[in-house]
Structure formats: structure tokens, C-alpha cells
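Hey, why these numbers?
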Amino acid sequence: RAGGTIDLFRIVITNVSSENNDDDEEDEEEEVQTTLKLLKRVETRSTLRSLTAIRISGSKKDVILVGADGGCLSLLAFDTATPVNNKNSDASVTYKIIHCPSFGKSGKEGE
């Protein structure tokens, strides 16, 4: 498929307890299990050249700065909203394009 994607993952750390029954002793060992959970996938319709997280001065949240081959430098903000009714369900993730100016014709012309 043409273009790229930006995948936003959450690191999920869970403690899994396992019981070990040797010589009538009940030992519980906790094993830490780390997984990645996909929260949001954003189609970009261009080839990404650079990606970094920055914090705008005076802000409390990080944003993602994305450079693409089409001559665009974009700022993306992701927001997670936890459902009020069911606290055990997954949070929904939305994104917003804060700024997306073009700078030049195309980044591929010089290649």
C-alpha cells in the first residue's frame, strides 16, 4: 500500500502469579509480563522521513513532530479518553493535527 502509518502503542506491565507446590509448601512467585498494546493507527499517505516527540513550552503534554517526503512538517497530538461508564474497558484514542504547513515542493525532487 502506498504511504506509511504511525502506530501508537501502550506498554502494559502485568504481574502473573504462579504457584509452585514442592514438599507441601505453597510458594507464590510473581512473574512480570510486558506486552505492547496497539492504541491507534494513523494512515499518513506519504513516506515518513523523521518522527520525534517534543513538548511545546508552557504545555503539559507531548506532541509528535512528523517530517514527510511530500514537503510537510506536521504536529500531531494524541488524546486518550477513559470511558466513564465502564472503567475496565479500553480507552479510546483520538488524534488532532495541530499544525501542518508545507515547506517547498517535494522532498523527493533532490534524490
Remarks:
- DSSP finds no helices and six strands in the chain.
- The mean pLDDT is 75.
